[in-house]
What we know:
By secondary structure, the chain is α+β, with helices and mostly antiparallel strands. It is built from 15 helices and 25 strands. The chain has helices spanning about 95-105, 160-170, 210-215, 225-230, 280-290, 305-310, 340-350, 355-360, 380-385, 395-405, 420-435, 445-455, 470-480, 495-505, 510-525, and strands at about 5, 5-10, 10, 35, 40-45, 75-80, 110-115, 125-130, 130-140, 140-145, 190-195, 200-205, 245-250, 255-260, 270-275, 295, 315-330, 365, 410-420, 435-445, 460, 465, 530-540, 545, 565. Strand 19 (about 410-420), helix 11 and strand 20 (about 435-445) form a beta-alpha-beta unit. The two termini are about 30 Å apart. Mean pLDDT is about 90; it is low at about 1-65.
Amino acid sequence: MHEEDGYQTRRAISRRRALRGGALGVAGLAAFALACGNDDKKEQGAATTTGAATATGGQAGAATAAPSAEQPKYGGILNQRLPNDPDRMDAHQSTTYVTVWPFAAPIFNQLVQFDPDKPGDKFEDITADLATKWEQPDGQTVRFTLKPGVKFHDGGILTSEDVKAQLEWIITPPQGKVSPRRQALAAIDKIETPDATTVLIKLKRPNPSLLMNLASHYFGIGSAKDLKENGEIGPKLIGTGPFKLKAYERGNFIELAKNPEYHMQGRPYLDGMKFFMVRDYTSALTNLIGGQYHLFYESVFTPSDQERVKKESGGKFEAEAVPSTLRSPVFMNARRKPYDDVRVRQAISLAIDRDAAIKVVKEGFGRRGGYMQPGGAWAISEADLKKFDGYDKPDLTKAKQLLQAAGVTSLKAAMPTRTDFKPFAELIKDQLAKIGIDVTIDLSDTATAQPKLQNGDFDVSAWLIGLNVDDPDATFAEVSTSNAVRNWSAVKDPKIDELYDKQSVITDTAERKKAVQELEKLALERFQIVTAFFDDLPFARAKTVRNFKFHSSLYTSRRMESVWLAG
């Protein structure tokens, strides 16, 4: 365990190399050791599994933005910008980082998390959070041991019953509630609580993706009492995290205050966090240069804008772009004609110039991709991707021929989308006009725009989709299967469902990758969505911010319990 300045920093010990790549096998589910700690108590737990080799020892490298001699400093408010109000207060019902950053990550803990001290969110980066250890006594049982004495913000003590209630809520939400990630936990048969600090998850089948999903901020644990009384964790937002809700003025700001009874002694360092809702990007950029924010993200924060911020702020900010799971797709509503015709969807793909989209919208901060993260553990090769119409280069002649074959000569299309997606929407509008599709863009905030897609009240929509992790279950269960909450195109194919189920239970990494790639190719062939590009996440950080790393996901490393301000 690494110690620095009188406190112990949690570090994960690498699991077996044979399980690298994010696939969590039956034997591999818990075949690794982890160690975590706090100021005054060192907790260690080596996970074991029947008949499986244990992990090799090997400490992960420390990562910190602070010089080794610099002492952590208490106090200060960390300021950030949001492009609009969260669509709701319960992140379990939401699909946007705008909800997760203020209302989930800082307020709730998960069973496990991706190590915030590492730059990635791979399987080997999973470390402790509410669970001090986990093990797999048999192929379809996972046992979590909870840290004792963890308090909710209202003084109640977290127990295994709270974990059980929250996970069961995600799997089967109450009537009138939506659970976008319920399919990610579909392999769970039942949850048992033999005592207050033990959670037994019984699986219907092997589930290689279980821990990957549980480690994102979307799986924060609320209290069983609040779920029973309110039907959700919002609007009270009573969690166990390092910060708690202090104030929320819609359209203005969200303010969080330090939790003085946080279960990691000596944390958090910050007195609080504040999020400012600023819709206009130009105004937000001006505010950033003026020093109003410590951290900044916007999908269209281009290289030229990054250079401007560094220069005009007098060098007070640093900027970077991180390859990510975020993608910019076009949804086509198959509930309506002619979008139910695959030839029309194929024509739309052929109309989009991916290179131009990356250059114009992102100034190069993007990559070609289909469903899985390009260059990640699961994605098909770029050569294979280019075999699908439009993913190599646009072909307007073929696109028009396909539309004509589908009986379409001209078409008017309503495009609702979020205000902050305007540049991408305008590019798609211009490119579809070249094949005779006249798009009318309808811009609004998340709370107004997203329900239109969910309810099928659109023709096409240019959107940004951020998946919590680069994992097949997380991706296809949220976007592609017949029951996926964000299958907004409503292109449903039993073969996609069949292949999804097939890959989800394969515990051998190489074999699973083959099945995942077969699934990705089938979904691309159906033109269920048309992905223009995968976004590189562009960030800015004030040089006074210490001990914070940007992850490739917008849904990890956002708790800020160990972040501090140097000035």
